[in-house]
Amino acid sequence: MGRCLTKKVFLIRSPILFLHLLISFSSGALKPDSRGVCVSKGGRFPPYESEGKPPKPIGKGSNDLTLCQVFRKRTCCSPAQTNPAFVAVRNLATFGEASQDCLNLFELLECSICNPNVGTQPGPPRICASFCNKVFEACKDAYFASSALTQMIGPCGVNDIICVKTSNWESNGTSFCEAAGFSVQTKEPCYGGSKASLESSVEESRRPRVSIKKKKKKKKTTRLKTETLSCFKDLLQWVRVMTTVQKVSLGVSFLVAGMFLFRQWNNRNQKQRLAGIQRAARRLGGKANGNSYSAAINRRVVQS
Prior knowledge:
Number of helices: 11
Number of strands: 5
Strand content: under 5%
Structural class: mainly alpha
Mean pLDDT: 75
Helix content: 40-55%
């Protein structure tokens, strides 16, 4: 998948990327409300499993968030919210022909539902108009489709027949966000980024860099292991959000590939056995018998 296709969907994990994106619109962050409880957003957004309860931390494991993990420490979200967001961002990367900036900003927009202050406010997620304008400008050439079920627009998917550029759907950021199911605010409180994310990014960027030549090989190996583990986690998350039909299709593909590899391995073993028998026959002087037995083995290999 071209050095881990799903990695394109998880761009938001980079601390430097957070720093670059969130500084530009962190001024619109929502004010914290420690007394609030989670209130489902309605519309296209699945209901919170923690409805009526305060936002809580999410631990790693089977119940971990498949996206928006920056809000792990305090959120109303569960995989019920992040799985659809993950699919939307993946579709935008795969079928929407989105630019890098569009992917980054749209992922932040989809993750607004996991912001703890958004989660405790009634109604659709309240997005700052300035942030909606940024997303619209970055994604105006990306392809979106209208959902017959929700009557809202979203990234073009594999089953969508008609996909149109964002600039043909809407003319500005406000109408774009509203068509995607969000509420737009011109004044605070509204969602325009995460101060917690920004602080985490700044702290990460200030860590000292070690540049000792003796450790270069070890660091390279560590980076390779980290990258492999990241790709494996992304693959698991991708499989987790697949439909049943897609999972069955993938399983059949693996089964066919496994049968082919087993057949190849079995033929190779038989050829190695044949070569060994021929060598032994020559050493013992029983060339005729050896050739006869070899011919029989050869016929079995051809027949199989």
